[in-house]
Specification:
The protein has 616 residues and is mostly beta strands. 5% of the residues lie in helices and 52% in strands. It starts with 14 loop residues before the first helix and ends with a strand. 16% of the residues are buried.
């Protein structure tokens, strides 16, 4: 059956019983002392040093006990509630972050036309994290909450620690000539405990230059041109955030069977002893333009971002018996455009300004040691994490249609999803594939667009007239799709997941008989495999949207009125956030859908505010 009462009992718990099951209390303490010195050594040379210590102490007491639950229908016993940590569990975790930062900064101007700045510095950080936990399950009474009051039977203790450190030397040189030719160079030399000793130090330089052509003498006659600047930059950055000990052999305790069980240790993962920094090289070319004091302005950038030696865990066969190592195993490229247009003008007594921004980019996996294939895929030449799905092709309307279609998995019935046979074969042996192979399986998956948006956009408009002002801010995204498949991802979309009802749209447009619809299948629940068992484009939904993020209308009370009551100025205003959204996304909030694959994400709220601002 498409629907059955197989929903786990704990998913429909009584809220009152959940409260009665116990408590979970956490106490957090934080100390953040810091000291700094800023010494002006000469008129042009400044020394700055900062030291800081961030200490966190957290204590958590979890106290849970069983609470009997009964069925409403007949009063019979159901279960003791979903008790995850029966008894008392105490957890302590602490963290220490120590930082030191010191710079020498020199700035000078020569002959009123040469501006020079030089900065050198040193930085170091060290971090230590510790945990300690203990638990006991069985207590004489539920009123006892301290560990010593419980039985030692099945008690447990645990504790661990981890630490890392990083050191950095860095410097910067800036120079400009008459604010016309501008140059900047930066360099960092970083060492990290996360990378193997022979390769833990990385050198990361960058440079940028700009030419303000509007400051040239041959451009002085162009009175309409306020600013025209060409920019170029190149830089390399490093990434070492891949866990605390990715290159080190880590031993875990275990037991070995000889005559008796003997304690020992074992390796649990493979490691790459030659691990090095992941590097990202960014090249950017830009243009800044301003005409007639903002009548028209433009900022445009093209960039190429290339990441090499990407740090990630490669898949390994289970037969190896060890988990995957972290390696420098990939290359990725992002290229894109960013634009911002501006316009400012007056029309009679109305003053206004407007801006519009637009961004688009292309992502491509250039190199990968081991491609991956699932609901998403990582392959060379494709965007990272591209959707890789079987193509949904409507709803089976009758048994004859099922019989005449390629063989589908899980034995579908009328009202179930129909899929497209993509894997073609040569039926007449002429060397040209001309028909499907007659079976729907993993080989029918295809790459589907939508993992990344086609473009982002946004803008604002401000209007001023007499004592009134109006500001509007909007934003949007186009071409992105959200995958709502799977039991957990489909919460709120898949009928009866954890006891939730189907959506109104599903009830209204579901398949109810031959010819009724091709939008939704017949009613089903989250264990029904003919629908839930296949990752397909049925679960893919357009999350593009346009949203009015903020509207504000204000009125400044005239001075001759506000002054009578002793106010320098006063304004009354109305403000609204998320006032309306244009989208075809079926979930509550397309903007928040990008944060998770779940359908039932708590949406951003539409808010209205009325207020008054006064200045005495």
């Amino acid at each position: 059956a498409r629907y059955s009462s197989s929903i786990a009992e704990w998913t429909v718990r009584n809220p009152a019983s959940i409260i009665a099951q116990g408590s979970n209390v956490t106490n957090n303490y934080n100390v953040r002392p810091q000291i700094y010195a800023n010494v002006k050594l000469t008129n042009n040379l400044n020394w700055q040093t900062k030291g800081a210590f961030n200490f966190n102490y957290n204590f958590q007491k979890n106290h849970e006990h069983a609470v009997s639950n009964y069925y409403f229908k007949d009063g019979s016993y159901a279960h003791d509630g979903a008790v995850w940590n029966l008894g008392v569990r105490d957890n302590i975790w602490t963290s220490n972050l120590t930082t030191l930062y010191s710079t020498l900064d020199y700035n000078n101007t020569f002959n009123s036309i040469h501006n020079l700045g030089v900065l050198v510095g040193y930085n170091q950080e060290s971090y230590l994290y510790r945990t300690l936990a203990g638990s006991r399950m069985y207590f004489p009474t539920d009123n006892l909450k301290e560990l010593n009051a419980g039985s030692s039977l099945n008690q447990s203790t645990s504790g661990t620690a981890s630490e890392w450190a990083i050191q950095s030397l860095f410097g910067r040189i800036t120079y400009d000539y008459k604010n016309k030719y501008l140059f900047e160079a930066n360099a960092r030399y970083d060492g990290t405990s996360r990378i193997a000793p022979d390769t833990r130090w990385g050198f990361f330089p960058s440079a940028s230059a700009a030419w303000r052509i509007s400051e040239e003498s041959f451009m002085k006659e162009t009175s309409w041109l306020d600013d025209l600047k060409f920019r170029a930059s190149w830089g390399k950055l490093g990434n070492q955030n891949v866990g605390t000990y990715p290159y080190q052999d880590v031993l875990s305790t275990t037991s070995y069977a000889f005559d008796d069980l003997e304690s020992g240790v074992r390796l649990t993962r493979l490691v790459d002893k030659k691990l090095k920094w992941e590097t990202t090289t960014i090249t950017d070319f830009g243009l800044d333009l301003n005409i007639k004091n903002g009548l028209f302005s433009l900022t445009a950038d093209w960039y190429n971002k290339f990441t090499d030696g990407i740090l990630y865990g490669i898949p390994v066969p289970a037969s190896i018996g060890l988990s995957a190592p972290t390696v420098n195993g990939g290359q990725m490229k992002n290229t894109g455009w960013d634009f911002e247009l501006g316009h400012r003008n007056n029309v009679g007594k109305v003053r206004y300004n407007a801006s519009l921004n637009f961004s688009t980019y292309k992502n491509e996996v250039v190199k990968i040691i081991s491609p991956s294939y699932g609901t998403t895929t990582v392959q060379e030449g494709l965007p990272y994490g591209s959707y890789y799905l079987i193509e949904w092709d409507g709803i089976f309307q009758n048994q004859q249609e099922i019989d005449n279609s390629p063989r589908h998995p899980f034995g579908p019935k009328p009202g179930d999803l129909k899929y497209k046979d993509q894997l073609t074969v040569d039926t007449n042996n002429d060397g040209v594939p001309d028909a499907g192979d007659g079976v729907i399986n993993a080989e029918d998956r295809v790459v589907v667009d939508g993992a990344y948006p086609k473009f982002y956009y946004g803008g604002s408009i401000d209007v001023f007239w007499k004592n009134f002002d109006i500001s509007v801010f909007f934003q949007g995204i186009e071409g992105i799709k959200n995958y709502l498949g799977g039991t957990h991802a489909g919460w709120g979309f898949t009928p009866y997941t954890q006891g939730s009802p189907p959506t109104k749209d599903f009830v209204k447009n579901r398949w109810t008989g031959e010819g009724s619809t091709n939008k939704y299948p017949a009613i089903f629940e989250s264990t029904y495999q003919p629908i839930m068992g296949t990752a397909s484009t049925y679960w893919l939904h357009d999350a593009s949207y346009f949203r009015l993020k903020n509207l504000r209308i204000g009125y400044n009370i005239p001075q001759h009125i506000s002054g009578k009551i002793g106010l320098k100025n006063a304004q009354v205003y109305f403000s609204g956030d998320n006032l309306f959204t244009i989208t075809s996304y079926p979930g509550a909030d397309p903007e928040r859908s990008g944060l998770t694959t779940q359908y039932s994400v708590y949406p951003q709220l539409t808010t209205y505010a009325f207020g008054i601002k006064i200045k005495l």
